[in-house]
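Pasting as-is:
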Amino acid sequence: MKTLSALVCATALIAAPASAQTKCITTTEAKALTQVALPAILRQTGQLCAGRLPASSILRQSSGAFIAKYDAASDRAWPTARAAIVKLSDPAVTALLDSDYARPLLVTMIAPLITGRIAVEDCPTIDALVTDLAPLPAPNTASIVVTTLRYLQAEKAKGRNVAVPNLPLCPGSK
């Protein structure tokens, strides 16, 4: 569950500065933001967990078909993710987001924030979760993260004590 929470946090951290919390993004935009961050999060989690997992672990594969499908999905998702970031950000950021450096910079800043929360004793559980998700298309993994985020936000709204990132999802959006 920590991995799913970490992935959910990635989405939240990429998206919104505190000043933009009155704006919201659609589920599609949240999935795109998640998709853009996933390859770096998976790679860094594999590096963090290398000492706790066998060499054959899917998380330890820094190249190959598994990570390539996440890289390709990230590339496809970037235009939508970029638009979501523009929507949530100060208009002054728009020009920066047009730069070829914006995406790598954002991902480089976000992934360590997520993977830095992972306890190495959780690596076998994280590896099992990622292995279970591996057969799915990469966009499905992003969908699971965003659906989980929506669920956690709904639980918090009911007054339940749930730690959940404050990603401004538009109510009822698809």
